[in-house]
Amino acid sequence: MRHTPESNTTQLNSAVSSLDGVNDPRSAVRRRFLVLAAAATGTVGAGVAAWPFIASFRPSAKARALGAPVQVNLSRLEPGQQITVTWRGQPLWVLHRTPQMLERLNHDHWLQNLRDPGSSVETQQPAYAKNATRSIRPQYLVVTALCTHLGCVPLFRPQVPDLELGADWMGGYYCPCHGSRFDLAGRVVKDVPAPTNLIVPPHRFLDGNTLEVGVDYV
Ligand code: FES
Question: pLDDT per residue over 9-58, tens digit each?
Fold first, then answer.
């Protein structure tokens, strides 16, 4: 069986979703383990599919664990593709959005489905990502891959239509643990358990193809 970053994450999310009793301390421990495993596996999976991304990480693994910035080479990340990287022990997604994905983000009827379409919760993104695409460069979404409900890793569901997720689904992320949904800007849908949008970490672009996570854009 061929393992991709998405399939690894999907399998782990399936495992997470099967956990019973979210208030059970043993379940909490198991869930955290699986989240950490997802972070590690996502990075390994990305390495199999796209070695140049891993090769571009300059700090050592120990330095990264302590919070050192992480550099990512985006030159081979094609429109529509997403990669999982790790920063401070947490998985992050870098998605190269297509023009169609960007166009769908701001349909009027979609914006009415969102709990915080204007990114009003200050803790969820730096000021430079408080805009219509929650990004510095519209085509690149950089977001923490942890559901803002209880920290599961959501599934990447960019397909449109996707009737399982609703007739009006515009592509995004689905958390199978308790059903939270987010769009391709990481904005949370109304009436789901997750209270806020996904977190955009501090980041900047060093040149046309190099992203650095962990340092603010100025
Ligand atoms: S962890 Fe509960 S919906 Fe994501």
Answer: 333 333 333 333 334 444 443 444 344 434 333 333 333 333 334 434 45
Query: What region does 191 belong to: left with phi over 0, alpha with psi -120 to 50, or beta?
Result: left
Entry pTM: 0.74
Domain annotation covers residue 16: yes
Nearest to 182 by CA among 146, 135, 137: 146
What percent of the chain lies above the pLDDT cut of 90?
Answer: 67
Mutate to test the pocket of ligand 1, among 155, 173, 180, 198 (most ligand atoms within 8 A of CB): 180
State the total domains in the chain. Answer: 2
197 near 148, Cβ under 8 Å? yes
Short-list 146, 144, 130, 128, CA closest to 205: 128
Structural domain range at position 203: 63-213
Sign, CA dihedral 40-13-115-80, equals positive
Residues 81 and 160 in one domain: yes
Specify burial of residue 207 (Cβ count, 10 A radius: 0-12, 13-18, 19+).
Answer: exposed
Residue 20 CA, ligand 1 centroid: distance in Å? 13
Active site residue 178: yes
Is the CB of residue 101 less than 8 Å from the CB of residue 181?
no
